[in-house]
Amino acid sequence: MADNVLNNENCFKEAVCIDAQRVYDSCSDKDCIEDLKVYFTSCDQEKVNNTSNVRIKDVSVLSTYVNLEPIPFNRGFYSVDMTFYFKVSLEILSSPTSCPEIVHGVSVFNKKVILYGSEGSVKVFTSSETCEEMNIAGNKSSPKAVVQVAKPIALSAELIEGRKNCGCECLCMIPECICNCIGGNVEHEKCGKSVYVTIGLFIIVQIVRNTQMLIPAYDFCIPDKECVTSSNNPCEVFKQIDFPVNEFFPQGIENKCTENKT
Q1: Tens digit of each residue's pLDDT (9 = 90 or more) over 10-32
Q2: Alpha helices in the chain (DSSP H)
Q3: Prediction pTM value
Q4: Long-range CB contacts (< 8 A, 24+ apart) of 138-142?
């Protein structure tokens, strides 16, 4: 429906003012993170200590903590501090003849970027606040950092005796809710074996701010199709699914290159 409206030049009705999140600055990055230590629960750490070989299976992002701070003496610029928490799945072998076993651990990666977020010193109050919830100070019109993370790529894993890098590794940076994703608190540093992984990471970082913008309005977004009631018969639902031809006949590199050109 939107394409039909935009193609009709006579559909323009008025210019309207909206309050939207405007992106003031953004950046993308491609990181190959090496020597990232994996922390395990006490049970899985014992399994790692008794293993002879380790292989990385999968990596996923559990959560990302984002902190935004203004940069002193450089007005309008902000430091975006990001802490990524990864769940790392590993395949371990106790001996060459034993069956592989899957263990899960947590890795932490910190990154900082500097972006422009403009300035604003107004305070925002809304009519939705009740007397009991009244915000006396108001909400300062500050920008917000948004981080988009693609699924990480599991590249490699290394098993070594003890720690690979000297220095104290603070485990207090791993929140309890993150540890619960692997079954409990992580094991504190002890003599034993450690696992270090290499991960490929793609991210986009944006600084957005609520602002008023004037845009052309064509019409209200009225749906142009009726809702289809789902059937309780699973076979009827299955009949509506197209046959997955591409799953049985993967396309060659020639077709892939043709699609990229178009």
Answers
A1: 677 888 898 888 999 999 999 99
A2: 2-7, 42-49, 176-179, 234-239, 245-248, 253-261
A3: 0.76
A4: 141/209, 141/210, 142/68, 142/209
